[in-house]
Amino acid sequence: MKKHKTILLPLGRQFSIILVLFIVCTAGITLYNTQDYVRVQTDFLSSSLDSYSSQLAKNTLEAYDSYKNICYSVAYSPVVQDFLSSKNRQSSYEAYQELRTQLENTFLLNPYISDIAVYGQDGTFASLGGSAFSYKPFADKLEETSFPYCTVGTSLINGTNCHILAMPICTLGTGQSQRLGILFLAIDINHLLSNSMTNMNSQKLYEPEILFANAQQELIYGTRSLYRTVLSTPAPQSETDTYEVKANSSPVTYIAKCYSFRKLGLSLYVLVDKSQLTSQIQTISQRQFLATGAILLLVFLFVTFLYKPFLDSLKQLIDFMKSISAGNRKAIRKGAQIHQGLIGSTEINDIFNAFNEMLIKTEELNHTIFDSYTRMYELEANNRKTEIAFLRSQINPHFLYNTLTMICGMAAEGMTDKIILVTGALSQIFRYSIKGNDLVSLREELEIVKSYLMIQKERFADRFTIEYNFSDDAYDCLIPKMVIQPLVENAIVHGLEKSLKPGSILIGAGRNPRHGYLAIWIFDTGVGMPPEKLQELRHSIAASVHDKTGDASADLAKMDAQNHDSIGILNVNSRMVLYYGADYTLLIDSEEGVGTNIQLRVPYQTNDFHKHHNSSPLHQGI
Questions:
Q1: Neighbours of 239 (CB within 10 A)
Q2: DSSP string computed for 266-295
Q3: 162, 251, 321, 503: which could join 525 in a potential S-S bond, CB 3.0 to 4.6 Å?
Q4: pLDDT value for 391
Q5: Per-residue b or e along 194-216, where b marks 16 or more CB atoms closer than 10 Å to that residue's CB
């Protein structure tokens, strides 16, 4: 069979041909689609603005109608009427508390209410948080006038820019109406309108500008410079019409719609920048995508013909690699063979040559790499065992000191029986901590915890109670030794001991079959932690997982310096990570004045599991 000559072309030249073809075709499609761009621009903005603005106007009007109903329900409630009409209301604490309860219940009816205030004719004032000084200008303005439910302006209430609504409070059932005072409702207008915009514009098709003003042309919400531009632009005769607003100081042109709420004396303006054409661009992009797909199909046909030898060569290389993966030592010695055909690639030829050279070098390095890896693995395992042993040995000296002090006190009072119990429990704890396997059953760990709590009960007398709640299948689960006792100690020292009232500790465990872990929790009703302290502790727990140096002593000293009060928790977390990896660690939740809950999650494994797999837990962690 006559051999034919292979023509080699650089891959760069072949790809250049494909790239030029792709650019020319894509440019033609882009020019074609751009012709429709200008035509759809105005239609899109007008229709979108109309639907969006009408819905926003409807929502705003409904919101203010609901505020009117809220004002009526408060102004003419018996609690408010009795408070304002009572002659000794200033000295009646119960009447004031009833009024506060009424206002607080009403406050919960709507998330945008910032404050509710009652301003009596004689200057009596009550509110949820605002000051009388904030409402006095409005009360003075309305004092001598007869007015219905209306808007009176804006004011800064509790640090929030609020729209103030007012309603007169008049007597009921007396035959002759008499004004008792004024009810003020402070609405967080920024929150109200921004949430409405977010809910209706969740797809982010455009970013509208919202302006909200009263009958006196005072801006309640929006950009002041834009509002001045709107006022200088004549509005259309009908609210259904849209019109253009052009800013004098910038080239931006807006399409606007205006809605008037005549009963409330309010005006709503919705404006959209004409340059926001995201939806149109999406339509054009879809058309470009379809056209580009057709071009890619043509390119694919061309590449299939041009690069078939290239693909065949790669397939040869892949088949050879699979043969090596299957353990074909003969193929390694023979090397990879290449047959590119009529049109070939210089890069493919170089790849095959380099691959064969790599096989030779790989064979030479295999034994060296294997020996090095074995030594590194054994060293890593020994280091982890050493680090775990060091962390487990860090028994809190304060516990030992306090226990010995308590024994001295018992000895001074001749309490021999209690001394025997306490010293026996103490020796049991220390014997357990330094002997035996690294993993123990939860039942064994619980016995040591009970010994520790017996000592603490002797020390603190009736300061706290203990409750246990364990599922039946939890006791046989294997856990690292001495992980529960430090957490119980932390709950007593930093939770219950600092509390001025009696507390309790709940210790429990339960299996989660779905996710294959055992959850162990320690809950105390102590002083708890403020949010910033809880966040700092959670950050320290995460840092103890990722910021390890390999020196257990140095890592423990660093954790102690950063969070001394929680060194026991960080110690336990570090040991959990060494045993099981970052997937099994501890979780902590706390609320100041309520208590703290710590949860450990460990893989649910028993002695039968370890016998079956014939492997140590340390190796599994590695």
A1: 14
A2: EEEEEEEETT--HHHHHHHHHHHHHHHHHH
A3: 503
A4: 45
A5: eebbeeeeeeebbebbbbbbbee
Distance, in Å, from the CA atom of 601 to the CA atom of 612, rounded to the nearest integer, reads 22
Burial 390-424 (b: 16+ CB within 10 A, else e): ebbebbbeebeeebeebbeebeeeebeeebebbee
Q: pLDDT exceeding 90 applies to what percent of the chain?
A: 17
Residue 559 or 327, more confident? 327
Q: Is 341 left (phi over 0), alpha (psi -120 to 50) or beta?
A: left
The tokens of 230 are what?
Answer: 């709107």
Task: Tell me the two tokens of residue 404.
Answer: 């010995």
- 8 A C-beta contact, residue 154 and residue 135: no
Residue 83: how many other CB atoms lie within 10 Å: 23
Could you give the C-alpha distances from 274 to 27, 197, 217, 357, 471, in angstroms and in order?
Answer: 26, 18, 26, 63, 65
pLDDT interval class at 186 (50, 70, 90): very high
Q: If phi over 0 gives left and psi between -120 and 50 gives alpha, with beta otherwise, what is residue 151?
A: beta
Angle at 216 between CA 210 and CA 219, to 5 degrees: 30
What secondary structure letter does DSSP report for 474? Answer: G
Tens of pLDDT along 490-528? 898 889 988 888 999 999 999 998 988 999 999 999 999
pLDDT at 556 over 70: no
Q: What confidence category does residue 35 fall into, taking pLDDT thresholds of 50, 70 and 90?
A: low
Residue 86 phi, psi (nearest 5): -75, 135
Mean pLDDT of 162-191: 85
Give, in order, the Cα–Cα distances in Å from 406 to each of 137, 346, 433, 447: 68, 86, 22, 22
* Residue 318: band (very low, low, confident or very high) from pLDDT cuts 50, 70, 90: confident
Confidence category of residue 549, pLDDT binned at 50, 70, 90:
low
Contact in structure between 272 and 208 (CB atoms under 8 Å) = yes
User: Nearest Cα to 111, choosing from 226, 224, 190?
Assistant: 190
Give me the pLDDT at residue 339, please: 67
Q: Report the alpha-carbon distance of residue 275 to residue 143 in Å, rounded.
A: 49
What b/e string do you get for 463-473 counting C-beta neighbours within 10 Å, with b at 16 or more? ebeeeeeeeee
